[in-house]
Description:
The chain has a domain at 1-18 and 36-76. The chain contains two helices and no strands. It has helices spanning 2-22, 44-76. Helix 1 runs antiparallel to helix 2 (44-76).
Amino acid sequence: MTAVLLVIHVILAVSMVIVVLLQRSDGGALGGLGGGSFGGLMSGRQSASLLTRTTGVLGACFFASSLVLAIMASNRSAPSSILDDVAPVQVEELPPPEEDPGPRVPVDQ
Length: 109
């Protein structure tokens, strides 16, 4: 299920990029390649309105699919702590200390 939603999410992202690039802007973008004309089917104003609506719908679908994917990802993983991954430390027991006979001072004989 996640793979299908991920493919739909990528398709939405690519199509939204294409629709945004087809819109006419001050910089030109890809609007000069026939993106804003639609071959006489619509006027310039109608095509701009259609592309604007399409961008809005694709953006809303992209947002919704992002939320669904995030919810699915959070439900799949169990809450865990980084401390759970730490391996237990092996503690070596030291031998008992030898009895200290006292200070070692040289004694003259």
